[in-house]
Automatic annotation (TrEMBL):
Record's keyword annotation contains Transmembrane: no
Subcellular location: Nucleus
Keyword Repeat found: no
Organism superkingdom: Eukaryota
GO MF annotation terms: DNA-binding transcription factor activity; RNA polymerase II cis-regulatory region sequence-specific DNA binding; zinc ion binding
Family: Belongs to the nuclear hormone receptor family.
Protein name: Nuclear Hormone Receptor family
Keywords: DNA-binding, Metal-binding, Nucleus, Receptor, Transcription, Transcription regulation, Zinc, Zinc-finger
Residue span(s) of domain NR LBD: 139-394
Any single Gene Ontology cellular-component annotation: nucleus
Length: 394
C-alpha cells in the first residue's frame, strides 16, 4: 500500500498526522525528539563527521546529531512553537473597561470632583443633641414601682413596641426625602435616649459619657427592635406564618425614596455603603427571633446587653468598665426573673439563643462599619454633619 507523500514526516519519512510541529510537518516522535534535544544540557556529536545516515533500515536512529540537523534543515525551530491551539485551554483576554483601566470596581466609579465651586450643605444636629441632654437630665415621667432595673426598662419598652408601625404599613405614602429622614432619625434617637433614662446606672453617668453611649448604640438598638416587631407581626399574620425560609415579607417602593439631598449617586448605589433595608425577608435572624419569642423582660435584656456590650468594645477604657458593670446588674436581674417569677432555674438554653441573636446583629454592624468608612473615604455625600459619630455604625 502506497503512502501519501503529503502526510509523511519531513525528517524521518514515517507516516505523520499531517500537522505541523515546531514549524515543519513531522511525526510526533520527531517532534518529541526535537523538544528533548533543545532542553538537553548534553552536546550531541556525530561519529561519522556528519556524513552518516542517521536512520537505519529497520527504523532505528543511530545518530542524534544528524537527526537534529535534519530537523533544522526542514525548518523546525523553537520560535515556531504554537500556543493555545486547544479550544478548551485558550486564554481569553479580559475586555478593557473603565473599571479595569482605573483599577477600581466597575460597580461604582467614584471620582472626586475637580470643581472648586462644589459647596456642601451642613446639617447641624446640635439642637437634637440638646433635646437628648434635656431628656437625660429628667427622671421618668411618672414614678415606676418595680423590683429592679430590668423590669423598669421592660416597663418603658412596652409602649414603644405597641406604637411602632408594623412591617405592612410603612409611612411611605409620599416621597421620603430629607425632612422625613431627619424626622425619623430624631424620633429614633430620642426614643432610645428616653428608654435609657429608665436605667438608674445610666442616669448617674457624666453627660459626656451619656452622649457617647447613646450616639454609638441608638441604631443598633433599633435593628434589634425592628427584628422583634417583625417577628411579632409574623406571629399575628397567618399568611406570613405559612411562608418558607428566605421568602420576601415586604418590599418598600424605592421610587418614592429621594436621596438627592444626601448624595449625587442613586439609591441603589448608596445601598452599597449604607445599611438601608427596603426589603424584609424571612431570613435566619428572623427565624431565630421567631423560635425564641422573647418576653418584654427578655427583649429588654437583649437590647441593653447588645448596646452596653457594643459600646464597651468600641470605646474601651472607662466605658468598658461601666458597660461590664451594667451588664452584670442586668444579668442578675434576669436571673431573678427566671428563678423567682418564671420558676425556671434551667434557663441557659434560652440565654444562649438570646446571645446568638445579639452576636449576629453585632457581626453585621461590624461589616457595615467598614462600608460606611469607605463612603467617607470616597466622599459620596453632599452634606456635612455636625455630629458624624452618630452615623458611624449606620
Amino acid at each position: 500500500m502506497l503512502k501519501n507523500s503529503e502526510s509523511l514526516c519531513h525528517v524521518c519519512g514515517s507516516e505523520s498526522n499531517g500537522m505541523y510541529h515546531y514549524g515543519a510537518q513531522v511525526c510526533r516522535a520527531c517532534a518529541a525528539f526535537f523538544r528533548r534535544a533543545l532542553t538537553s544540557p548534553y552536546p550531541k556529536k556525530c561519529r561519522m563527521n556528519q556524513k552518516c545516515d542517521f536512520l537505519t533500515k529497520n527504523g532505528y536512529f543511530k545518530c542524534k546529531f544528524c537527526r537534529l540537523k535534519k530537523c533544522y534543515d526542514v525548518g523546525m525551530s523553537s520560535e515556531n512553537f504554537q500556543l493555545n491551539r486547544d479550544v478548551h485551554n485558550t486564554a481569553c483576554r479580559i475586555p478593557e473597561t473603565v473599571g479595569t483601566f482605573l483599577g477600581r470596581s466597575n460597580l461604582i466609579i467614584f471620582s472626586k470632583s475637580s470643581s472648586c465651586d462644589s459647596v456642601k450643605s451642613v446639617i447641624n444636629l446640635e439642637n437634637l443633641i440638646e433635646k437628648a441632654m434635656r431628656i437625660m437630665k429628667q427622671s421618668p415621667e411618672s414614678p415606676i414601682f418595680v423590683r429592679n432595673s430590668l423590669e423598669k426598662l421592660a416597663f418603658s419598652l412596652g409602649p414603644i413596641l405597641k406604637t411602632n408601625q408594623n412591617i405592612n404599613s410603612p409611612n411611605y405614602g409620599k416621597i421620603y426625602g430629607m425632612d422625613q429622614s431627619m424626622a425619623q432619625i430624631e424620633h429614633e434617637i430620642l426614643t432610645v435616649t428616653k428608654w435609657l433614662t429608665h436605667f438608674d446606672g445610666f442616669l448617674d453617668l457624666a453627660p459626656k459619657l451619656q452622649i457617647q453611649i447613646f450616639q454609638a448604640c441608638w441604631n443598633l438598638w433599633w435593628k434589634l427592635e425592628r427584628l422583634a416587631t417583625t417577628a411579632m407581626e409574623i406571629r399575628r399574620n397567618e399568611n406570613l406564618r405559612k411562608m418558607k425560609r428566605n421568602s420576601l415579607l415586604y418590599k418598600f417602593d424605592k421610587t418614592r425614596i429621594d436621596v438627592s439631598w444626601l448624595t449625587r449617586y442613586s439609591f441603589e448605589e448608596l445601598k452599597f455603603f449604607l445599611d438601608l433595608p427596603t426589603e424584609f425577608y424571612l431570613d435566619d435572624l428572623t427565624i431565630e427571633m421567631l423560635d425564641l419569642n422573647p418576653t418584654e423582660i427578655e427583649l429588654s435584656f437583649m437590647l441593653s446587653q447588645l448596646c452596653f456590650h457594643y459600646v464597651g468594645k468600641r470605646f474601651q477604657g472607662e466605658i468598658l468598665r461601666i458597660s461590664e458593670k451594667f451588664q452584670q446588674i442586668l444579668a442578675d436581674d434576669l436571673h431573678d426573673y427566671y428563678t423567682i417569677e418564671m420558676i425556671n432555674p434551667y434557663y441557659m438554653k434560652r440565654l444562649a439563643k438570646m446571645m446568638k441573636i445579639n452576636n449576629m446583629i453585632q457581626l453585621e454592624a461590624y461589616k457595615n462599619r467598614s462600608r460606611t468608612e469607605l463612603a467617607f473615604v470616597f466622599d459620596i455625600f453632599n452634606v456635612e454633619i455636625s455630629h458624624s459619630e452618630i452615623f458611624r455604625d449606620y
